[in-house]
Amino acid sequence: MAEPSAPIPTPRTLAAFVFPGFETLDLYGPLEMLGSLPGRVEVAIVAETREAVASVQGQRLLPDADVDDAPMPDLLLVPGGDSAIDVLQRERSLDWLRRAAADAELVLSVCTGSILLGGAGILDGRRATTNKRDFLATIGLAPQVEWIRQARWVEDGKYFTSSGVSAGMDMSLAVIGRLFGRDEAEEMAAGCEYDWHDDPHWDPFAVEAGLVAG
Amino acid sequence: MAEPSAPIPTPRTLAAFVFPGFETLDLYGPLEMLGSLPGRVEVAIVAETREAVASVQGQRLLPDADVDDAPMPDLLLVPGGDSAIDVLQRERSLDWLRRAAADAELVLSVCTGSILLGGAGILDGRRATTNKRDFLATIGLAPQVEWIRQARWVEDGKYFTSSGVSAGMDMSLAVIGRLFGRDEAEEMAAGCEYDWHDDPHWDPFAVEAGLVAG
Fold first, then answer.
1. Measuring CA to CA, which of A152, A197, B46, B173 is 20 to 30 A from B192?
2. pTM of the model
3. What CA–CA distance (Å, rounded) separates A153 from A162?
4. First-to-last CA distance in chain A?
5. CB-count exposure of residue A100 (10 Å: 0-12, 13-18, 19+)
């Protein structure tokens, strides 16, 4: 007789929320990694409408869903960019982000994506970090957050917030580690030929930006 | 009297050639950096047609031009992906790639993008590298290339070829250094909070893949 099969797990859904002028690597660094787990993580791009969305570097991405039809995801990813704070004026997007974050298993942001989440009230009372050069100019938009000056990324409960741009990749590997184990994270880094900074306290850019003493 | 103004330099054009199933970070890592030089580098996405092109991770990108109307760029960027070798069957794309490479100031590839360039005859007699795990299985498609087993990237004349996925970012910073000076490359890395591996010989992944002794 055959052994009883293990149940096939349902893939987690990941929604990446994008807006005009998002920072390219904030989005695609994490998606290179979290998007390479077939059968375990299924990615959808969500935007306010289904029209193409251009990053600040200019490439045009077609959303898979808009805020009216996107289902609530297991994992929510929010990139940053100088225009992230403009989303704080967009009520339909904010409403979707608040509902998605409340429902999600994990909420991830890269760079000034945490300023958007924080400004929307999603990180109230949480520890979080953000881009280092923009740190002092932006954290005032979210005063209810405990902002951490020196961190590659900060993990507080279900919230993962990374520092600027490239830091999103290090954080994403930590997320893979949390969801699927350390070995999976290391294998993903090796497959991408990526030198994972796996210490969340590693952050020379906080020193360079003058946020902490060197 | 006013000083005579320095002439405003014409921006260089960069064409990134994409195909179905391209590897996400191969493209967007370099574009985060080379696409953030306004007035100095102008990026266009080129594909065989103007229809949306999905990466292997599934996100859909709208090309800016197709191989019938794309002008010859100053800088040509070719990402990789498992499907890069499929482009070797597509004569219209190969014809455009050969003409663009011949005309370009610099030709850049990431990961198996060099297998595509090499298979198209564009790297004959040149030194080049490629993805380390796929190395031995793919270099036979381009036997006229001198393949370098251990290298983060290889620079041979106007040709820059990088190792797998993440290596494209390190190579792109080297390209910025060559075009605009070392200081610009370091500033770009810092702005992206990126830990630049600026030594082209740094390549622990060649050891891990068993291509060279540890």
1. B46
2. 0.96
3. 4
4. 65
5. buried
Residues paired with A78 in a beta bridge: A109
Q: Out of A32, A57, A132, name the one closest to residue B31 (CB).
A: A57
Q: Are residues A106 and A160 in contact, defined by beta-carbon separation less than 8 angstroms?
A: yes
Using a CB–CB cutoff of 8 Å, tell me whether B163 touches chain A: yes
Across the interface, of A36, A59, A131, the residue whose CB is closest to B61 is A59
What are the residues whose beta carbons fall under 8 Å from the beta carbon of A170, sequence distance 6 or more?
A: A152, A153, A162, A196, A197, A198, A200
CB contact under 8 A, B61 and A61: yes
Q: Is B187 on the interface with A (CB under 8 A)?
A: no
Mean pLDDT over each residue of chain A, to the nearest integer: 96
Q: Catalytic site residue B192?
A: no
**Residue in A with minimal Cα distance to B26:** A32
Superfamily of domain B12-208: Class I glutamine amidotransferase (GATase) domain (3.40.50.880)
Residues linked to residue B156 through DSSP beta bridges, in sequence order = B159
Q: What is the pLDDT of residues B59-107, one digit of tens each?
A: 999 999 999 999 999 999 999 999 999 999 999 999 999 999 999 999 9
